[in-house]
Write a structure and sequence with these properties.
This protein has 181 residues and is an all-alpha fold. The protein has one domain. Helix content is 69%, strand content 2%. The chain is built from seven helices and two strands; from the N terminus they run ααββααααα. Strands 1-2 form a two-stranded antiparallel ribbon. α1 packs antiparallel against α3 and α1 packs across α4. It starts with a helix and ends in an 8-residue tail after the last helix.
Length: 181
């Protein structure tokens, strides 16, 4: 697989995991997952992790995966790349894993004394990726191994922090986020 193809496939495969946290921010609000509970004097997750955001983020990511399945046959030839489709289990696993990764990062932030929205380098950029990939692997191990080659994984782990920082800066400029990171 050439460099261009690897980059396109990596981005395509990760789109259902890239979108959920953004959708959750837009859907924002609602009842916090931790219900306001504390652990050792600190919130378990904080007000930013809500049931509504998690459900909306997962649903939007799953819907996107279904759209990608529907258009793969047309988009692939247009860009000259054989684009993969997502098995039903992965349609849900990628976005739900992404949401769980972000929730896990919030838990780690609270345990390390970071306030909501405070930077947590590397964790902020890759938390959702690690769990999205883990959930996808559990949901469809053979498909995962065929699609997420070492080259694709390398691109994911290099591309994601760049996209994360860039999209956060844009969201900040648009007034959708309180901080640019």
């Amino acid at each position: 697989m050439g460099v261009f193809t690897t980059i396109v496939v990596a981005f395509w495969l990760m789109l259902p995991a890239y979108v959920p946290n953004n959708a959750a921010v837009l859907a924002g609000g609602g009842r916090p997952i931790d219900g306001g509970r504390t652990w050792n004097g600190k919130r378990v997750l904080g007000d930013g992790k809500t049931w509504r955001g998690t459900l909306v983020g997962t649903a939007v990511g799953a819907a996107l995966a279904l759209v990608l399945n529907a258009v793969a046959g047309d988009v692939g030839p247009a860009v000259g790349v054989d684009l993969p489709t997502f098995p039903v289990a992965v349609v849900v696993a990628l976005p739900f894993g992404a949401m769980c990764g972000d929730i896990a990062a919030s838990f780690l932030k609270r345990r390390t004394g970071r306030r909501r929205g405070a930077p947590f380098p590397v964790v902020d950029q890759l938390d959702f990726v690690v769990l999205a990939l883990a959930f996808a692997f559990v949901a469809a191990p053979t498909w995962f191994s065929e699609q997420f080659t070492l080259g694709v994984l390398a691109v994911v782990f290099v591309l994601t922090p760049i996209l994360h920082v860039g999209t956060n800066a844009i969201a900040y400029a648009l007034g959708l986020k309180d901080e640019p990171y």
